[in-house]
Structures are given as C-alpha cells and as structure tokens.
Amino acid sequence: MSSFTNYDDVSNSYDVYRRAGNMDLLISMTTHLTGKCLEEMSVLDAGCGTGNYALGLLDAGLGRITMMDGSDGMLTTARMKTANYQGIAEYRLARLPQLPFPDESFDVVMFNQVLHHLSDSSKPDGRYPVVRETLAETIRVLKKGGVIVIDTCSHDQVRHGYWFNDVLGITEQYMSLYPPLPLLRQVLSNGGCTTIQAYVQPDVVLMDYAMYSDVEGSLQASWRKADSCFSLSSQVQIKSFCQKIIKMKNENTLKAFFEECEQERLTFGQSTTIFARK
Ligand SMILES: C[S@@+](CC[C@H](N)C(=O)[O-])C[C@H]1O[C@@H](n2cnc3c(N)ncnc32)[C@H](O)[C@@H]1O
C-alpha cells in the first residue's frame, strides 16, 4: 500500500480524473526494445491501479498481462474494467517491493507513477532502500532482453510541472519521495540493464486536462483526490492552499496564474518515462 494515500478510498473516483497519457510511447518503445510485437508480449503492470495502462495495452492487442496492486479497491476496479478481455494472466494483490513471481517471467514490467508511494522511500540518507529492492526484484522477474518501464517525476518536474505544489507549500517534502533520476539510472545499470533511455512528453498531463485547468475546482475536496500531494498535506497546508486560491479568485488573477504555470509545465513536463533493457 501507499505510505500516504488511501487507495482503497480513492479507487471509486480515480478514473474520473486520471488518464494514461503516454500509451504511444509505451507501445513503441517496448516493442522496439524487446523486438516483440504486442501480441506475443507478456507484461506485468506493477501498481496497476484501476488498470488504465493495462486497458490501453489490451486495446492495442497485447498478448498477456498480469495486474498487481497493493490496494484491493484499485485491483477490484481494474478487474471489473478488464474482465471481458482475453489475455489476462492474473490479478494479484501484493505489496512491493515483493514481486511474487518466478524468475524470468515477463517481457515487460512497468511502474506508472508508483515508486514515490513506496514506504520509507525518503529515508534521510537518500538511499531509497525499498525502491532499490523493488528494482532488484524487477530485474529478477524480467526475461533476458526484457524491458523495465518506469514513469516517474524528476525533481524539476515536481517543482515546475504542477500548478498546485508550490501553492500547497509541499514541493520539497513531495520531491523527497521521488527517487532522483540519476539514482534510478545507476541502480538499473548496476543491476545489469543496458539501453537506459528517458523521455519527457511536455504535452502529457496526468490528470484529465479540463479538471487540471479548473483551478477554482481545487476548492472541492473531491477535486483534491486527483493528486497524492494533497493526501500528503496537513489540514493547515490545505486550509492555507484554499485561502490562497480564494484570494486569487477574488482578485480575478486565477487565469493569469494558471497560464504562467502552464508555461513552466510546457518547459519541464509532468513526468519522465525511463526504459531499460535487461
Ligand atoms: C498513482 S497510482 C498509479 C496507478 C496506475 N499505475 C496508473 O498510473 O494509473 C499508484 C498505485 O500504486 C499502488 N501502490 C502503492 N504502493 C504500493 C505497494 N507498496 N505495493 C503495491 N502497490 C502499491 C497504489 O495502490 C496505486 O494503485
């Protein structure tokens, strides 16, 4: 389970506001790096959530997928959405860093916005032991020539890619949960992976864009379920956030504020997708 977001609670509303935005990149890079077409590929979606990425791959013709998550609620939703598809190997309720699968089981293992949720990932020594253990497990369950996919945020992206993090005053705390990209590269490389490549698509937004751009909407608690930075925040931080939004609303500056933030997002993007080959 996430160390700070109750995903059983979030599972009822997650699909209202979250999107699987980088499917084209995911499909083109995994087929390219594995040398396999989707139909003959076996994928593990680790931290699959409600199955949005799995669904995208199945719709594109994926041969076989295993969906794993630590939240029963998220996995139940994923199951309901994909029940009628061929190619579902298994739904597995399990908690990272463990990957309860035999060695060399999968062509692709993907983590989409999962690593920052792993418990004690922000130990002061900056070593991210649970992330390291998770990646070691991943390399174990990947076939030779298989590909690991990690969609995560760089520290610059946490700072510049989301209009709400600074207003909330959560940037530094949230950033510390994300393992730095150089550390991920180093761990993958030390684990024997090659062809480590990272891509940023600045036009891709993790939330539904109409919702993301509705700054005033963030005054609603239901809107604030759309990003985990709000579940990490204290009541004091949330109260102060709402006061700042109301002030901008009263001063009629919300639109200008959002447009200024958008310039930064379009420079840095919101997430980075790393691909590495075993
Ligand atoms: C931000 S959601 C991403 C869901 C999905 N990958 C997506 O992009 O739509 C993070 C997911 O990671 C799962 N998760 C967090 N910590 C976990 C852990 N230790 N073991 C397994 N799943 C975990 C959560 O339950 C949640 O479904």
TrEMBL record:
It comes from the Eukaryota. GO terms for molecular function: S-adenosylmethionine-dependent methyltransferase activity. InterPro entries: Methyltransf_11 (IPR013216), SAM-dependent_MTases_sf (IPR029063). It holds the Pfam family Methyltransf_11. Residues 44-150 form the Methyltransferase type domain. SUPFAM superfamilies: S-adenosyl-L-methionine-dependent methyltransferases (SSF53335). CDD domains: AdoMet_MTases. It comes from Ridgeia piscesae (Tubeworm). This is Methyltransferase type 11 domain-containing protein.
